[in-house]
Amino acid sequence: MRKKKLPALICFNRCGILRKKKLPAQLQRILSLLQRKKALTAIVLIKEDAKMEQQAQEAEVLAVESIGYGSRVCVDLIDQLDPTEGVLVGNTGYGYLQVLSENRITETYPARPFRINCGAIHQYLNIGENKTTYLAEIRPGQAIPVLKDGEVRKVSIGRVKIEKRKFLRIVCKVNEVEISACLQESNSVHLLGADGEAKSVIDLKKGDRVVCYLDQPGRHLGEKIEEEISEF
Fold first, then answer.
1. CA 4/CA 225 separation, integer angstroms
2. Among the four 90, 190, 204, 217, which has the fewest Cβ within 10 Å?
């Protein structure tokens, strides 16, 4: 193969090796070479694990209170989820709690390995790259980040369900910062505990410790901006 400058492409034994993050542009160029020169016989993709921009921290539960009925958003994804995979949701831009998949059997519900009960419709959903979206805005076909042990994979939404359900408001604190989430009052809804185990929201009590991800408020259409803002 004639030497040619291709970004992050190494040619060895007529195989193209490239990084997944740069796949689209590289793939077009490699396919073009295949068509014109037939110089490559294989393409090897090297997967790079994505990481969260924020670091996981422990938050102490300050209060759990019943706040009545509202619109709850369930997300059904197109792949099976691990019991400790989840998404990050929160009432404010100060931070998020990790709500887990429903891939577990409870006293009243069978396992739903594809489902995450994300909570109240007004909440922020952290979608990575310092961006958020409202749960009210997510749509089928959209790929959202699913988190486990600080690593992220994107999975597309197959279905969104919005139904009237009873809610709990869970308030936590870490490093003098208060973060909160409004989640369905149900034994099928679990947060990731600081010990790495799932904690049912109906069993949470003051003093319990859960995983959280801190952030800073100030968004415009989901994009981070610098401004003076108070959220609570």
1. 41
2. 217
Show the domains of the chain with their CATH numbers: 10-46 (no CATH), 56-219 (2.170.16)
Query: Strand runs (DSSP E) across 143-202, as ranges?
Result: 143-148, 151-174, 177-184, 190-192, 198-200
Q: How far apart are CA 212 and CA 160, in angstroms?
A: 24
Predicted confidence (pLDDT) per residue in 97-107, tens digit: 999 999 999 99
Q: With the C-alpha atoms ordered 84, 53, 143, 189, is the resulting torsion angle positive or negative?
A: positive
Q: What angle do CA 23, 29, 31 make, to 5 degrees?
A: 90
Are the C-beta atoms of residues 112 and 103 closer than 8 Å to each other? yes
Q: How far apart are CA 178 and CA 96, in angstroms?
A: 10
| 34-74 pLDDT per residue, tens | 556 555 444 444 444 466 667 899 999 999 999 999 999 99
- In the chain, pLDDT over 90 holds for what percent of residues? 66
How many whole angstroms separate alpha carbon 202 and alpha carbon 86? Answer: 18
Q: Which amino acid is at 98?
A: Q
Dist. CA 228–CA 203, nearest whole Å: 36
**pTM of the predicted model as reported, rounded to 2 decimal places:** 0.75
**Taking the C-alpha atoms of 102, 105, 106 and 112 in order, what is their torsion angle to the nearest 10 degrees?**
30
| Rounded CA separation 209/228 (Å) | 30
